[in-house]
Amino acid sequence: MLSIKNLHATVDGTPILKGINLEIKPGEVHAIMGPNGSGKSTLSQVLAGHEAFEVTAGQVLMNGEDLLSKEIEERARDGLFLAFQYPVEIPGVSNIQFLRTAVNSVRKHRGEPELDAVGFMKLAKETAKRVDLDISFLKRGVNEGFSGGEKKRNEIMQMMLLEPRLAILDETDSGLDIDALKTVSEGVNANRSPDRSFLVVTHYQRLLSYIIPDYVHVLAGGQIIKSGGRDLALELEDKGYGWLGINEAAAS
Ligand SMILES: Nc1ncnc2c1ncn2[C@@H]1O[C@H](COP(=O)(O)OP(=O)(O)OP(=O)(O)O)[C@@H](O)[C@H]1O
């Protein structure tokens, strides 16, 4: 599904990613943990194609194709989805309009029939219900005035509608209350399938007790310095990052 080899990336000339290697097979859920500023969001953004980051070395294949040579839109159409750490507001564009355009663009690319306004509204209402989001949010501007938790639920609703091949969730648990955390996790779990993979960036083991990962990786200083099973997340919760030779101050 995703193969990252020796990925290096800079922002404004400063190296952030310093040789990332990661293989994600279809159906797998990988969690990335690590201290603040270690490069987790940068990795998510580089995969999604954010132009602020320059890839200086390495290769990323998604479904066997060179991901890095593709435009952002192409990556999304090919099934890459990024749920942002800080979802952006798009005032003036209604959520439903935005979602329908995005979903139909993906459907068209896959050779599937586009959904008309009525059909899409029905689907969107059902999906909103699954993430406990009132249907009034469909009519509002994208994320406009949404609370932190509502934005995250909205991101998961988008993901469910877009049916990606690879979903990257960048700190989707931050700002969620306990009920929202469960709802969002259930949404993710309901979307797990043998041909869909997830890369879940989180600071907290708590999320990973709901979304059980196949692998957990520690990203520090722009490199994956340790990988393990879900027990690694428990160990990190217990011991912090110091035992891995990472400066505790940087991990706070
Ligand atoms: N646009 C940017 N301009 C300058 N520096 C940046 C930019 N984006 C990221 N960085 C720097 O890159 C480093 C890695 O940031 P990144 O957001 O990837 O870390 P993170 O591991 O996701 O951190 P956190 O856990 O705090 O969210 C940080 O030192 C950050 O300041």
TrEMBL record:
Q: Which UniProt keywords apply?
A: ATP-binding, Nucleotide-binding
* Presence of the UniProt keyword Nucleotide-binding in the record: yes
Q: Which Gene3D superfamilies match?
A: P-loop containing nucleotide triphosphate hydrolases
Against InterPro entries, the record matches this protein to: AAA+_ATPase, ABC_transporter-like_ATP-bd, FeS-cluster_ATPase_SufC, P-loop_NTPase
* Highest taxon above the source species: Bacteria
Q: Does the keyword S-adenosyl-L-methionine apply?
A: no
Q: Which GO terms describe its molecular function?
A: ATP binding; ATP hydrolysis activity
Can you give the residue ranges of the ABC transporter domain?
2-246
The family note in this entry says:
Belongs to the ABC transporter superfamily. Ycf16 family.
Q: What is this protein called?
A: Fe-S cluster assembly ATPase SufC
Q: Which organism is it from?
A: Hydrocarboniclastica marina
